Amino acid sequence: MSAATNAGWSTENRSSFASDAGIRWRRWMVTMPLLLLTCLALLWLSTAVGVGSVTLTPDQMWRTFSAPETATRLEIVATNARLSRALMALGVGVALGMAGALLQALYRNPLADPGITGVTQGAVTAAVAWIVFGPPLAPGQVSWVLPAVSALGAIFSATATWTITRLGGKVEPTRLILIGVLVGGVLGAITSIALLWADENTQTLISWLSGSLAAVTWQKVGMLGGSLLLVLPLTVLAIPMGNVLQFGDDVSAGLGQEVTPARAIVLITACLLTAAAVCTVGGIGFVGLVAPHLLRWWVGSDLRRLAPAAACAGGALVMAADLVARNLRPTDVSNWLNIPLNTAAVTLPVGVYLALLGGPFFLFLLRRTRGK
After folding, report:
1. Nearest to residue 285, comparing CAs of 276, 297, 277, 293?
2. DSSP type of residue 215
């Protein structure tokens, strides 16, 4: 091939890459405002006009903030309960969506997710052990020790998964996922054993393990918001590192990046984001798996675009699931299907509906990945 031909081929490829980058950038510029508007619409819908035991108009909701002395007690309670729950759903979705995007880049595997890689289970096990065996808390009291304990559990689980995988030689993404499932299963058994000592709190913990937003308070919302703000600088640092790591260790080293420190920073960031969500609402799964895939085909795999897009998509996904969970009761489903259902549950945890969505989605991704 002649030098002129080589030059022409290179110029053509550069033009093609530039064109693709331009298209993805324009898509991202359209996608982000739409995602933000979707989150705001779901936030308003969850707070004001969501179907429920108490239906509030926008005027009634606004009155509870602008002139609380003229609002009824029922309006104030309903607005505060719904707004805190919606903000919690938004924050949890943002944390898990961002963590999922980082883990998929780190493991170079589209099936990576905080729940599948054992990170969520590590945070859950540590939190349950602290709740059961740690010092008792007064009703409604929120302790900042719990996020720290959850973060340590998530980091321990991720470190154990990585260490066991390295025992077999080179770290392969698929093997890393399988070891993560194994570590998560062992930690799940430890969680079950800890529940035997929970006594009267067993039912509450089981609901919490399913991912429940029923007991959200403004203190917990503040704790989640504070945790996300603390992790934000590390997230900004981890995104460009994860961008390089998804090309592989050899390419990362060739580009001048220290692979081991970069991998540790990305992994710790994902663990901290997951722990922030887990310690407040429990084991909500599949958000980190679904959210990045909803937008990767549209905005590309560049984490500078994908990570914030996945965060917004995760927030919208959890808020939508919570809106369904808050208004769809098991008794309603049994009446529609004409199936007798003996249950005292008023509503199901939001994690149940996300699992119903994420399970089939995971199988779809698994089949597509095997087919390639």
Report:
1. 277
2. T
Task: Say which residues have a Cβ less than 8 Å from residue 3's Cβ, sequence separation at least 6.
Answer: none
Residue type, 327: N
Whether residue 287 is contained in a domain is answered as: yes
> Which CATH number goes with the domain that contains 309?
1.10.3470.10
pTM higher than 0.70 for the full model?
yes
Is 4 contained in some domain?
no
Distance CA 162, CA 171 (A): 8
What torsion, rounded to 10 degrees, do the Cα atoms 76, 77, 82, 85 define?
A: 130
Residue with tokens 């108009």: 57
b/e map of 65-77 (b: 16 or more CB within 10 Å)? eeeeeebeeebee
Distance CA 117, CA 179 (A): 8
Is residue 21 assigned to a domain?
no
Give pLDDT tens digits for 187-219.
988 988 888 887 666 666 777 787 888 778 888
User: How close are the terminal C-alpha atoms of the chain, in Å?
Assistant: 32
Q: Which two tokens stand for residue 295?
A: 């937008």
Cβ contact 176:109 at 8 Å: yes
Looking at the structure of the chain, the number of domains it has is 1
CA angle 74, 75, 79 (to 5 degrees): 115
Full residue range of the structural domain in which residue 246 is found: 31-371
Residue 337 domain flag:
yes
Contact 112, 100 (CB under 8 A): yes
pLDDT digits (tens, 9 = 90+) for 87-109: 898 899 999 999 999 999 988 88
Q: Rounded to the nearest 10 degrees, what angle do helices 287-299 and 3-44 cross at?
A: 130
What is the identity of the amino acid at 218? W
